[in-house]
């Protein structure tokens, strides 16, 4: 996931910053603290994406088998972050767009009824 990639990147940056001649215990402790700090930040970012994607997944009313498949894909380490982002994009592009269209239609219907126009008929 994103957290493991950031951890590898942070450790490589901190390891490059210290040469072999500076084998000081304090410098290595600082490098480890930097790696752990970036790792914790990356894990928190991953958790935010995963929980928001789960909320989007359950509020989009997909069939149960598709929901279960996407949750299993989210558990896979290399695929989980991409699936989470895909679910969030799907939710914002498809599900929210449909709900905005139905809200607009009902608002137009209420406007015509309130304005007193009787020549427009709506069949549902």
Quick rundown:
With 124 residues, this protein is mostly helical. It has helices spanning 2-17, 25-59, 64-75, 80-115.
Care to describe what's here?
The chain is mainly α and 124 residues long. 80% of the residues lie in helices and 0% in strands. It contains four helices and no strands. The chain has helices at residues 2-17, 25-59, 64-75, 80-115. The two termini are 47 Å apart. Keywords: Membrane, Transmembrane, Transmembrane helix. The chain crosses the membrane at residues 35-58, 64-91.
What's the arrangement of secondary structure elements?
Elements: H1 2-17, H2 25-59, H3 64-75, H4 80-115
Helical element count? 4
Number of E-type strands: 0
The low-confidence parts are 112-116
Q: What is the overall shape?
A: elongated
Sheet of most strands: none
The CA-CA distance between the termini, in Å, is 47 Å
Keywords: Membrane, Transmembrane, Transmembrane helix
Transmembrane segments: 35-58, 64-91
Keywords:
single chain, transmembrane, mainly alpha, about 120 residues, transmembrane helix, 4 helices, membrane
């Amino acid at each position: 996931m994103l957290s493991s990639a950031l951890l590898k990147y942070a450790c490589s940056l901190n390891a490059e910053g210290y040469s072999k001649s500076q084998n000081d215990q304090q410098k290595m402790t600082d490098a480890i603290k930097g790696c752990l700090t970036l790792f914790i930040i990356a894990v928190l970012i991953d958790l935010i994406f995963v929980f928001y994607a789960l909320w989007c997944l359950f509020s989009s009313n997909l069939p149960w088998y598709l929901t279960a498949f996407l949750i299993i894909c989210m558990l896979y380490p290399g695929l989980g972050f991409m699936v989470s982002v895909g679910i969030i994009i799907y939710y914002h592009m498809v599900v929210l767009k449909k709900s905005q269209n139905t809200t607009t239609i009902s608002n137009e219907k209420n406007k015509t009824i309130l304005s007193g126009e009787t020549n427009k008929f709506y069949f549902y």
